[in-house]
Amino acid sequence: MSDSSALPMSERDSAHLPGHWLLARLGKRVLRPGGAGTTTRLLADAGIAGSDVVELAPGLGRTAREILASAPRSYTGVEHDETAAELTRDAIGDRGRCVVADAAATGLPDAGADVVVGEAMLTMQTDAAKARIVAEAARTLRPGGRYAIHELALVPDELDDTVKTEIRQGLARSIKVNARPLTVAEWRTLLTDAGLSVDVVRLAPMALLRPARFVADEGVLGTLRFVRNVLRDGDARKRVLGMRATFTTYRKSIAAVAIVATKPR
């Protein structure tokens, strides 16, 4: 992102900016825990072609462009931040629309979508807010519609509650967002409690800031641009190194998960 003033929370300094917007300010465009490859597989599993698609919290609009490349019948983004909504509108042009609304109260009609997509957004919500957002996604889906999510997971399912709390607190301190990732079993339960049937579950390493994943997601030039920007900003460099250290500390207990769940016919 060449113009950081166009990003949400542009008035905040690097020391206090939520981690995902800090990375975007520094030039990172793929902000998903499982990387671009996991997003591509998720969209393929969801069946985008010919579908009416709703994306919750599209952010920079990168996934929106990939959705549109898969030839949906229609695309609607739902973004609570007006600045982020403008970024999505810039990304999609006249091929879709982006409305400003809460993911838990979209204002969209009942049973109007074939696919709802949400990436790296439920993790940042409280348990109650997660349930409200999933219920809203289920409401907007037609019978047989698919809800596709890509989130941070804790592994294994039997992970001790004390360790879960430690990881969540470490992530919150590092990324400055109250992250509450769930185990895969807990993600499943969240979806089935809303009346959905889990069809596909894929796990991937959470390697957001590892060099190989970075180059795969951003390309060589994008990676070099990011490194240059980090080196120019001492506070940003401290934050990025802190995030990377947190991810490394808990690398055996955190992963990316992609799930597709279906609304019964």
From TrEMBL:
<keyword id="KW-0489">Methyltransferase</keyword>
<dbReference type="GO" id="GO:0032259">
    <property type="term" value="P:methylation"/>
</dbReference>
<dbReference type="InterPro" id="IPR013216">
    <property type="entry name" value="Methyltransf_11"/>
</dbReference>
<protein>
    <submittedName>
        <fullName>Methyltransferase domain-containing protein</fullName>
    </submittedName>
</protein>
<keyword id="KW-0808">Transferase</keyword>
<feature type="domain" description="Methyltransferase type 11">
    <location>
        <begin position="55"/>
        <end position="149"/>
    </location>
</feature>
<dbReference type="Pfam" id="PF08241">
    <property type="entry name" value="Methyltransf_11"/>
</dbReference>
<dbReference type="InterPro" id="IPR029063">
    <property type="entry name" value="SAM-dependent_MTases_sf"/>
</dbReference>
<dbReference type="GO" id="GO:0008168">
    <property type="term" value="F:methyltransferase activity"/>
</dbReference>
